[in-house]
Write a structure and sequence with these properties.
Length: 365
């Protein structure tokens, strides 16, 4: 029997300058807060965050995030929060910081507030975290009973981040509808354990449409550190639409192949999440035999926002075929989502598609 589930954050707030309102939301969520951010992020927004919480008379403890969303880091920070007697977990920064904040809140059964400082991933709104080992190798997905209680996105802050990260969010978002269609076609389940909902599919489709319509103009605006209506639309697509879309409509090949890339070492790991997902999306499109014209459109768009479409740009031009097979094996492993694309894909199928993307991309003018 089919079961349809739709999951979303309790509240989503987006706009230029809304970071200064953070403190106003915390008393209703529990008051005393553990704030986690890496040193770089805290150096950029720490004073504003501190001022906002002090104005709202919210007691807090700041603890630096060490950089990896691993079980050990989650345990370390949860113990600090437990000893300090905090009641709310606030994550500020990029995807791994935010995934860690959600995990800490789950450990402590507390409310969680997510404050992305870059529009670079679809992590903020979801009720899951991607967990890695201490050395950065994909470990597992961790699922939660509820989505974040508040997602607060200051578009002015996001526009000050490197444009490469903004473009990475666009690339991550563009995987949403591609993967959702595969999940629907294969009668697989979404990330919340149900069939893809009409709402989830519609949101995923709106995400793709928004990014292909406004993505390039928003990219050029963020190059100049500007917030425009196109930037607001793309930040919403990167964060809210992509987040709700992937969670309620599901993941398939693009993210599984991204995770598979952790099976190999080298300079590929200097790339962002979105850059690797971009190549994973093209690889999925090859595996599902999408029309050449459609794949070429994505290749041209990725190039316009400086996302990788060749093995050289992925730092994989000298990688052995055997290592690409390892990527395919990890992507198809238990607990990942390649089976939502096709349960019968072999590691060699994935390796061949990775190579085919490179060959095809080089011919696109």
């Amino acid at each position: 029997m089919s079961k349809f589930i739709f999951s979303s954050p309790r509240k989503y707030v987006q706009g230029s300058g809304v970071l200064d309102e953070l403190g106003e939301y915390l008393p209703a969520l529990g008051g005393k807060s553990l704030l986690i951010a890496d040193d770089r992020v805290w150096g950029i927004i720490g004073e504003r965050v501190t001022a906002s919480l002090k104005k709202a008379e919210v007691p807090f403890l700041y603890e630096p995030f060490k950089g990896e969303a691993s079980s050990n880091e989650i345990t370390r920070l949860a113990e600090i929060a437990r000893k300090a007697g905090t009641h709310v977990v606030v994550g500020l920064g990029g995807g791994k910081t935010l995934d860690t904040a959600k995990a800490i809140a789950d450990e402590l059964k507390q409310n969680v507030v997510i404050v992305p400082t870059v529009a670079s991933t679809d992590a903020p709104c979801s009720a899951l975290s991607v967990i890695y080992t201490d050395t950065g190798v994909f470990d597992t997905y961790r699922f939660y009973d509820k989505n974040p209680d508040l997602v607060l996105v200051d578009t002015q802050v996001c526009a000050q981040a490197p444009v490469r990260l903004f473009a990475s969010g666009i690339a991550d978002g563009l995987a949403t509808f591609v993967e959702a269609q595969a999940v629907l076609r294969s009668h697989s389940q979404s990330m919340v354990g149900g069939d893809p909902t009409i709402a989830g599919m519609a949101i995923a489709e709106a995400c793709e449409k928004t990014l292909l319509t406004y993505g390039y103009s928003a990219y050029t605006a963020v190059e100049q550190k500007l917030v425009t209506p196109a930037v607001e639309a793309v930040v919403e697509a990167n964060t809210l639409l992509s987040g709700l879309g992937f969670e309620n409509a599901g993941l398939a090949g693009a993210h599984a192949i991204h995770n598979g890339f952790t099976a190999i070492s080298g300079d590929i790991h200097h790339l962002t999440h979105g850059e690797k997902v971009a190549y994973g999306t093209l690889t999925q499109m090859v595996l599902e035999q999408r029309p050449d014209q459609e794949i070429a459109r994505y290749v041209r768009f990725y190039r316009a926002i400086k996302m990788p479409t060749t093995l050289k740009e992925m730092h994989l031009e000298n990688e052995s075929y055997e290592n690409l097979v390892k990527v395919g094996a990890l992507a198809g492993g238990k607990g990942d989502t390649l089976g939502n694309l096709n349960q019968h894909l072999s590691p060699e199928d994935v390796a061949n598609a990775i190579l085919a993307v490179d060959a095809f991309s080089k011919t696109v003018k």
